[in-house]
Amino acid sequence: MARPTRARVDLGAIRHNYRHAKAQAAGTRALAVVKADAYGHGATAVARALEPEVDGFAVACIEEALELRESGIRTPIVLLEGVFEPDELASADRAGLTPVVHNQEQLDWVCAARPERAHAVWLKMDTGMHRLGLAPDAFAAAHARLADCRHVTDVVLMTHLACADTPGHAATEAQLASFQSHAGHLPGPRSIANSAAVLGCRAAHGDWLRPGIMLYGASPFGEAHPSAAALRPTLTFESRLIGVRDLAAGEAIGYGRRFVCAAPTRVGVVAAGYADGYPRHAQDGTPIAVNGQPTRIIGRVSMDMLTVDLTDQPEARPGDPVQLWGDQIPANAVAAASDTIAYQLFTSLSRRVPISYERSG
Ligand SMILES: *Cc1c(COP(=O)(O)O)cnc(C)c1O
User: Fold this and answer.
1) Could you give the domains of the chain?
2) Does ligand 1 come within 6 angstroms of the Cβ of 220?
3) Helix (H, G, I), strand (E, B) or coil at 333
């Protein structure tokens, strides 16, 4: 038998989640964010499943965009970090990609380029996240330069929110106010909302949504949120038991003897570890399901294996199914017990974990 550790991706659930994003803001368009290999789900398969209904895709860099074009994707693709060198604009032109412009250098490169095809530009303002974007005071002048370029068709005005995952945060209001005061007079569509703002901040919806994590079924919020409740999990990370043993009180499990049994304990060994992308920082008590029943991690996660409490499952035996996260165990719950976020869990799944695709209705 092959190693049973694998991921199952439900492309129908991703489509459902994309529709849920658009349903939050009638009349808007939405870029499906498929950077980082579609948050570990496989960008080509995800893009193919969404292409019939998607308004566009967003990726981090040209390499990711070219992979989609080579697999036959024809929909607009926005490069969220723009180009890293002016030479890339020629391949962006050939592939019909849409660059973000987030600094003066990129603005100079785009204005100096002589592409064969006219293209749109997404012009980004730094309204307080202080990562990428032109200073608010420089924004109108940059916009005017792009408007003068004959090869630039449309300019989409964009910014990115730092605290949208805390609904009602004062920083969001301040960012929206800055965007309005420095771009309010400019023509063109607006794009502000990541998943958290799609679900939790109507004022940020604008004309183009940019949902990422919500497409993959994880709520961007730390706490339960009504508009995130309809999201469907999209990735099931699963394996099987490969060993079961009974330990007496006082015995310890695994590296460092981190977990010491307080009482007689039945322990299951699961064929998944940090080299598969399971977080090594998972604490004792991190939820996991065996035979569809919730239980907990006990002992330190090792490279190829981890250990679980089977005391309540006297019948469990090697070969029994284990779900690390998916429809029974929310990725957010594993992330919370591991001092990380679902984004990192999804993008950390390793090449050793084969992905299979299914398509629910
Ligand atoms: C990654 C990214 C998104 C998507 O963010 P989520 O929190 O995953 O929805 C949106 N906009 C930009 C600029 C991004 O880099």
Assistant:
1) 11-217 (3.20.20.10), 235-358 (2.40.37.10)
2) yes
3) helix
